[in-house]
Amino acid sequence: MHIVLITGISGSGKSVALNVLEDAGYYCVDNLPPPLLPALVETVNHESKLAVAVDARSAESLVELPANVRKLKDDGHDVRVMFLTASTHSLVARFSETRRSHPLSHELRPGENPASRRTLIECIAEERERLSAIEQLGHVIDTSELSANKLRAWVRELAQIERAPLTLFFESFAFKVGVPLDADFVFDVRAVPNPYYDLTLRPLTGKDAPVIAFLEAQPSANEMLEDIRKFIEKWLPSFKTDNRSYLTVAVGCTGGQHRSVYMAERLGAYFSATERVVVRHREQS
């Protein structure tokens, strides 16, 4: 079994890392006490990939973690450990922004007065002390200056997860019905001559040869198609870098039958040579 163990300081991005692995098909468990790790592996042995997050709330049993990891490796499992950390300044800023309390702030030390809770900085310092023995157990990632997207990319690299290719959706629609809510880009092609006003073309759609011939004969249709294509080609790499899984390009005309359908079909055919493409027409059954 391929096992990724995520541990580290609260606020350093463990949830982000665990979500990346979950999206990649890992069976994920958060805040697992280390003594339960061997039993968990045995229970979910039908899974090929497992991700487990362990934090300082399991203080008394953290000392067992190195032995558990060695045992799993001896049993033939591929185990990788990620230790996420960040500067105290960064952690304080993150907890302030999210208005979350530190997990250790709810714990009381022996003999401690319930009215005298530890400060955030005191909680961070104690958590560092608890986790110091396991910090070098795996690969240490300092997320102080990392964006969430960068951390996701690093987690994928360390876990050797192949990033799923971006799916490019081209959707035709009718402005009279409304703009699709899931659209990332919306292009209005109503400036192109409308086949609707040709009574022989009216019952057809932008997928029919007579309508295609009509629009191909319009210089404005060709120019607009070229402009949209160039725009998408220019910015598509940026969306891939941004770790997007989907990008929806909506193309609209008045009734969603002729011009928008033609444009969506032509764009889909062009980009399908290099990208994963889906073409859909909202106003057509």
TrEMBL record:
Species this chain originates from: Massilia agilis
RapZ-like N-terminal domain mapped to chain residues: 1-157
InterPro entries named in the record: P-loop_NTPase, RapZ-like, RapZ-like_N, RapZ_C
Domain RapZ C-terminal: 167-284
Protein name from the UniProt record: RNase adapter RapZ
Binding site for ATP: G8, I9, S10, G11, S12, G13, K14, S15
Sequence positions that bind GTP: D55, A56, R57, S58
Keywords: ATP-binding, GTP-binding, Nucleotide-binding
